[in-house]
């Protein structure tokens, strides 16, 4: 067994699901012989043929709508969108159909589909290639939103997403696609779709994040450890439905919480977690909840991108501020 | 300059407005029983529509979209499809739904604001009514793609209005149907109006059938007030889709004799004269004229049919009105296959609201 | 001067703006001789002609993209979308273009447009006609999100939205279109686009909302007053940019906050306000922040709709719970 | 059945691949200066593209989309447009942009990740590069609608790729152009590939020009490697749009000789042989052949031109590389006309981040 990158782990999970279940098909722009622009589907067309790995016309609204039709026929399409910034035309189908087909037919038809897209910044990509739109999907009823942060979690969560009987939006932090390698046994073991991962223990402050921010958070935790501050770290890989319990438990012990993400701040995903703490978690809080996020501006082009993306220093600084409260 | 491609759009029609024939009829038109089936379905649809409008006017149904004047389109579709085909309708195809086995009570329930109306006991794989205009086209493409991948001899039929042809998602679905040669028939119910927007403000295309040219397959027109013609072109299109994987677009030329929905007042934007003029070409009287001319239909037959239809529709309306409500928790119990743990608190809150309101919902 | 409904007030504001500025044009499906399905544009085509009141083809993605092109040419399109549930195809253009045209050209081109749509539930409408999608817009950088709750505020905010040099999403609570009448002088006075309205004084608990929920909140405040609980009420008519100061000030005094909206709960708009309180407002809180919201389900069809929409009783109950904390 | 509509698509070409002529040439082709202008622009564009690729390969530019082999399309467009017209490009039209006065330095800056590259000093109303495929079509319709409402004799030109023709928003914009008779010319740069997806997998339509039929106006093909032909059909289309309010779709047949972008490796999905075959028809050599055959171009002219272009491009590259960065706060200062009070805190935070990083951004 060799260590895999995240993109390889995702590919392994898709391949395994395709082996297991003939109803699993992969669709998207350039997913065939090109193997996808990030090579997530590399080798799949050679292995499973053009009828199961389907290059589509350049039509994102279609991609989502096709998936609804395929899903209603009990197929399990795994649909690749090329970049985060090109997922928006799919929103109409996702919110108006995918997320409610089961409900509106009282279970007669359903939508066992996976919507995959690379997402987030940090790779000096062109305009519209560095978006963090997770809030849009996490706010939609009837849809799960999943964001892995390591190769292993990507493998297990992708398998779970494909096997899940309902629609899953699966956002893949492109900055992590090849950033690290990890042993990923291709054992067919799925991970639960509604549990946060406790990544690091520490009861001075709880750092919460997902996707590419998680690596920044872990760096921050190291910085803080050097200063004698023990930070616990939670990976909210399954944003929706949100595993509130794990977060509340941790903050009950630490009394302090920093949430980090790349998405714009206002009405962004950290707000939900902060709201949870302002509600059920209120009396555990020793200090204000800090959100370390992107700003309420379009993600800048590469030259200014580093000033936009939350980094370890910003996260650590927020944690230090919280340590001032007891 | 060199000509590199050329295209044509044709139109099919058999019956004149007075019930006489313009062309040689297709074989099935020699079968009285089949024509009576079509006639009966159109009358039942019209009876149903009238009842639904009446229920809405008296506060016992929600907003409703009548298919008055367009029964030949929807009945022609329903009559030509096989049970194993899949209908992907918009919101005005009750005629086709009824022929395929959706019950009148279910249709009432849907428009009465009850999700159970889309849990058809009959055609289990048909799509429910689609309100966001044109969004169903991609579903039909997905269904047809599934048929193709599984090598099933089934066809998806996607119905939409003239207004829907302006939607980009419809075009995207057509383009996919063309390039993948999907077993998929698109039917455009061109009733000349999209609420207040006339066909002429919707597109400069001379025909809506030619929209298919952009997608690389053929489109044709049919007289949408001539149920024989609609059934005939549908049958041909279904066969070509099923056997030769040729998608097709059929533009049925008809007219919306009613308001857009019960929430609309068409006199605001169109002339009553236009409407009364178009009554002359309506499809039910036209087929009756044909049947009567062949001596296949009598005054007695007509009276009996009207009475039967009224009885059937009234019975369905009563069953609908007598339905018991769903518990409040029904709104959350079908969102996911299994209720996620994170939603249990919300479910309890909804149950409490239901209890507060005294048990089940309306 | 006669009292106007909200829909009449909006019409007056549009007419006035059209009088004032020849670059203002109205576009949308059925906005011409039909006057819009809710009659918001009634009479405008007769008054301003078909070149300024334009019936469009049935193409929502187009509507938003057209507005971007018109805006770049310094026109001021006011675009009507027929219902909340049909706005989703416009999201791509709003987030990828309208909200960033000024930024990406460093001010060379801009987008002075208004996107109008009736929104929310409570009128027993058909499927997809009762959505509360404000979070989507409020989360987009570069876009203002405005929701009026009275005829007068609708008038002043609509004028401000049209005159504003940047894109505004203006959601109109359809349930309030004709619910009440109010004197609305057609005086051309705009209201600020970044200030909450303090609607009712009361320092026991602060009730926060917008749109149709505001009427429910005021009912709740009456119920509470009957019980000796003095509730202050804030109308967050301008969701984005959010006037945090007014909310924080009020909660600083009351120590208790209930936020109500029809949108689904998770990652919904109340979360932003709760997050604000969990951050800057933390030490004023005597009690957990309560969110009284729609559920994480598609808005039910009319038969179950009443169980979905927050009502005065739910809001009052939340406030009462908070009064248990001191 | 009755034929109710028919359509045809024509193709225009003048120059053969060897520089000889197939047809009588348009008038402007008798003007050496104009042809040399076109030639020069194509060579400059190609030189620019090569430099941009080189800068990217050495880490001094971001991802870049070369127009290698497609210079005749983009130069033909730029040459035919008037300054007051508005270009609404996709991301491969640097040739047209350069002719319209966007500076090479600005184009470098854009691809170098600096928003100031879209703040053209030159054509102030042209749209910036558009990355989300096809989304620019509706902008062009909006611009053309503004021209129409203000009765300005200006035309919007919207350029897109073959892949973009599958997008629904493109169709919606075309449909609007048709029904409102907008002064709008759509140009499809059919370079046969959309990243790895060949034209044949994009649509079953025999031509992309016929996409216009769905929208009710005319489409035509042109040899996109023949700059004389492109300029000629563009000129005609612009005149018809300007004077007769007739929108038009021009499909330019060319080939993407480069990778899709610098982030792509086309050998993964297409045969090198196909590419070398298509080099034979490339546009620059073709026009040179024509000029040389007329004795309008010498070896010395060519050497001088190449040197001039290299110098111009190098100078622009150096100016680009020497540019000072923007302050971090530039990311927030242009979002709204005036910074909303609610964003002042964020601006301060960004300023602090900028200071932390030692002043201005890269
Ligand atoms: C995407 C979308 N936009 C707007 C509406 C509101 N609406 C409902 S029906 C309709 C007109 C539809 O016209 P057409 O397609 O001709 O069908 P018809 O109603 O005539 O059968 C409109 C605009 C909608 N349901 N969906
Ligand atoms: C909406 C959207 N989807 C996907 C992409 C990613 N992408 C960039 S270019 C491209 C192919 C475009 O092909 P074509 O329209 O033929 O233009 P070309 O690149 O050949 O000039 C794709 C899929 C995008 N930019 N926008
Ligand atoms: Mg219609
Ligand atoms: Mg191409």
UniProtKB/TrEMBL annotation, chains A, C:
InterPro entries: THDP-binding, Transketo_C/PFOR_II, Transketolase-like_Pyr-bd, Transketolase_C. Residues 4-179 form the Transketolase-like pyrimidine-binding domain. Keywords: Oxidoreductase, Thiamine pyrophosphate. It comes from the Bacteria. Pfam families: Transket_pyr (PF02779), Transketolase_C (PF02780). The keyword Transferase does not apply. GO terms for molecular function: oxidoreductase activity. The keyword Oxidoreductase applies. Its cofactor is thiamine diphosphate. PANTHER family: PYRUVATE DEHYDROGENASE E1 COMPONENT BETA SUBUNIT, PYRUVATE DEHYDROGENASE E1 COMPONENT SUBUNIT BETA. This is Alpha-ketoacid dehydrogenase subunit beta.
From TrEMBL, chains B, D:
Keywords: Oxidoreductase, Pyruvate, Thiamine pyrophosphate. GO terms for molecular function: pyruvate dehydrogenase (acetyl-transferring) activity. It is an enzyme of class 1 (oxidoreductase). SUPFAM superfamilies: Thiamin diphosphate-binding fold (THDP-binding). GO terms for biological process: branched-chain amino acid catabolic process. CDD domains: TPP_E1_PDC_ADC_BCADC. Residues 39-318 form the Dehydrogenase E1 component domain. It catalyses: N(6)-[(R)-lipoyl]-L-lysyl-[protein] + pyruvate + H(+) = N(6)-[(R)-S(8)-acetyldihydrolipoyl]-L-lysyl-[protein] + CO2. Its cofactor is thiamine diphosphate. Its EC number is 1.2.4.1. The pyruvate dehydrogenase complex catalyzes the overall conversion of pyruvate to acetyl-CoA and CO(2). It contains multiple copies of three enzymatic components: pyruvate dehydrogenase (E1), dihydrolipoamide acetyltransferase (E2) and lipoamide dehydrogenase (E3). Heterodimer of an alpha and a beta chain. This is Pyruvate dehydrogenase E1 component subunit alpha. It comes from Marinimicrococcus flavescens. The lineage of its organism: Bacteria, Pseudomonadati, Pseudomonadota, Alphaproteobacteria, Geminicoccales.
């Amino acid at each position: 067994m060799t260590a895999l990158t995240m993109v390889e782990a995702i590919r392994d999970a898709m391949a395994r699901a395709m082996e297991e279940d003939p109803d699993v098909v992969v669709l998207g722009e350039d997913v065939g012989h090109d193997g996808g622009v990030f090579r997530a589907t590399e080798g799949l067309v050679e292995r499973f043929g053009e009828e199961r790995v389907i290059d589509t016309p350049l039509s994102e609204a279609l991609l989502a709508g096709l998936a609804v039709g395929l899903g209603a026929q009990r197929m399990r399409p795994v649909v690749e969108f090329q970049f985060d910034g090109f997922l928006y035309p799919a929103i109409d189908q996702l919110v108006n159909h995918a997320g409610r087909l089961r409900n509106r037919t009282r279970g007669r038809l359903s939508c066992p589909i996976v919507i995959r897209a690379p997402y987030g910044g940090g790779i000096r990509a062109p305009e519209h290639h560095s978006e963090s739109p997770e809030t849009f999907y996490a706010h939609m009823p009837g849809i799960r939103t999943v964001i892995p942060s390591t190769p292993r979690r990507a493998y297990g969560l992708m398998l779970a997403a494909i096997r899940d009987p309902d629609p899953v939006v699966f956002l893949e932090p492109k900055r992590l696609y090849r950033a690290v390698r990890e042993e990923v046994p291709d054992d067919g073991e799925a991970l639960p779709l509604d549990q946060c991962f406790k990544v690091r223990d520490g009861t001075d402050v709880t750092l919460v994040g997902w996707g590419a921010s998680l690596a920044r958070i872990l760096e921050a935790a190291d910085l803080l450890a050097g200063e004698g501050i023990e930070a616990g770290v939670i990976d909210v890989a399954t944003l929706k439905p949100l595993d509130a319990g794990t977060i509340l438990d941790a903050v009950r012990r630490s009394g302090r919480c920093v949430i980090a993400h790349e998405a714009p701040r206002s009405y962004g995903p950290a707000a939900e977690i902060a709201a949870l703490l302002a509600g059920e978690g209120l009396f555990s809080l020793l200090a204000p909840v800090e959100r370390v996020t992107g700003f309420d501006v379009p993600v800048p082009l590469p030259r200014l991108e580093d000033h936009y993306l939350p980094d370890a220093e910003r996260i650590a600084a927020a944690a230090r501020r919280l340590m001032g409260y007891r | 300059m060199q000509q590199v491609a050329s295209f044509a759009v044709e139109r099919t029609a058999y019956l004149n407005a007075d019930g006489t024939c313009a062309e040689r009829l297709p074989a099935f038109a020699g079968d009285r029983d089949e024509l009576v089936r079509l006639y009966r379905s159109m009358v039942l649809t019209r009876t149903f529509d009238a009842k639904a409008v009446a229920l809405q006017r008296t506060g016992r149904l929600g907003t409703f979209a009548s298919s008055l004047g367009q029964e030949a389109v929807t009945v022609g579709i329903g009559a030509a499809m096989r049970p194993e085909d899949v209908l992907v309708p918009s919101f005005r195809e009750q005629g086709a739904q009824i022929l395929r086995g959706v019950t009148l009570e279910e249709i009432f329930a849907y428009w009465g604001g009850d999700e159970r109306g889309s849990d058809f006991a009959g055609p289990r794989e048909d799509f429910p009514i689609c309100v966001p205009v044109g969004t169903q086209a991609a579903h039909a493409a997905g269904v047809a793609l599934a048929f193709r991948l599984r090598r099933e001899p089934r066809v998806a039929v996607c119905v939409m209005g003239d207004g829907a042809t302006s939607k980009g998602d419809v075009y995207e679905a057509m383009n996919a149907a063309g390039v993948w040669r999907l077993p998929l028939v698109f039917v455009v119910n061109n009733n000349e109006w999209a609420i207040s927007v006339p066909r002429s403000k919707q597109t400069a295309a001379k025909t809506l059938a030619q929209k298919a040219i952009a997608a690389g397959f053929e489109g044709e027109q049919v007289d949408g007030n001539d149920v024989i013609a609609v059934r005939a072109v549908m049958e041909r299109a279904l066969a070509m889709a099923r056997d030769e994987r040729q998608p097709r677009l059929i533009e049925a030329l008809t007219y919306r004799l009613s308001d857009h929905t019960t929430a609309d007042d068409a006199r605001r934007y169109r002339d009553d004269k236009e409407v009364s003029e178009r009554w002359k070409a309506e499809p039910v009287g036209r087929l009756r004229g044909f049947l009567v001319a062949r001596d296949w239909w009598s005054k007695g037959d007509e009276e009996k049919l009207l009475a039967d239809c009224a009885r059937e529709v009234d019975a369905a309306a009563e069953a609908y009105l007598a339905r018991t409500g769903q518990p409040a928790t029904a709104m959350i119990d079908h969102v996911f296959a299994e209720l996620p743990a994170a939603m249990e608190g919300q479910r309890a809150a909804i149950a409490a609201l239901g209890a507060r309101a005294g048990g089940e919902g309306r």
